[in-house]
Amino acid sequence: MEGFNNTLLNEFILIGITDQPLLRKVLFIFVFFFYLLDLCGNLTIVSLVIRDPVLQSPMYVFLGNLSFVDMLTSSVIVPKMMVGFFVENIITVKGCVTQMYFSHFLGCTEAVLLAVMGYDRYVAICHPLRYVTIMGRSTCIQLIVATWLTGFTYSLINAVMTSQLPFCNNQKVKHFFCDVKPVIKLACKDIHVNEVTMNTASGFLSTINFLLTLLSYIYIITHVFKIKSSTGRTKVFSTCSSHFTIVILFYGTAMCTYLGPSSEASLEKDRIAAILYTVITPTLNPIIYTLRNKEVRNSVKRLIKSFP
Description:
disordered N terminus
């Protein structure tokens, strides 16, 4: 056992997206540009929600949380990823588990938050007269706290189980950040329990949140068919379109990553999907809400006019 312990690894090497020098430089510019847009866009949304009294309703408080989560998600992964475009991207095992924990923490938090936002839209559209009563300040705070606590608890499962694995010999993680599937494949012991636990927990939470979001939209669509005015229907679709677009972007990438098999081919596909949900989607979210939401656009205009 003593000889075995001496072979345990203390660090990993993240192999990144490509080994082509020219392509690395191009990708660095691309990722850096989107990361700046991500920070600027989401920071703007968070600032607007905090400072503008018009955006103090639950819908926009949830939106502010979503922007905050998106900003943190990219910041946990993208800076380290950009380092790997120029030098060998080394990360300690503890640092790897920490990055894994926060990426799953924020990913799960966003999934629950999208379900909460779907419920908020359901109440606003199907029960407008009771909206203020149902979605009061205390309810809003409780939903936000529950959202973050769910992400915090879920992420502990994979992080704790991964931290207990021994890693030896192979230290190259076939990804540009420490995701659970490529990391546990490097363990020098059977990982069947880890894979089953990961797939079960991820599948359960993803399915529950997706079904809750879907259920909200089923009720919304049913309500829309009862509206006789075309203007009223258009208003409802306009209210929900931004959130629905973000739901499609989120689940379209996250589900194909964490609910698929852990083969070599799937790991390559996961890297491509990961670029979307860590770089592209967090940048698009504030743009989608800004372009399609009149109150957010007006708030942005007021913010611009407030500068001397």
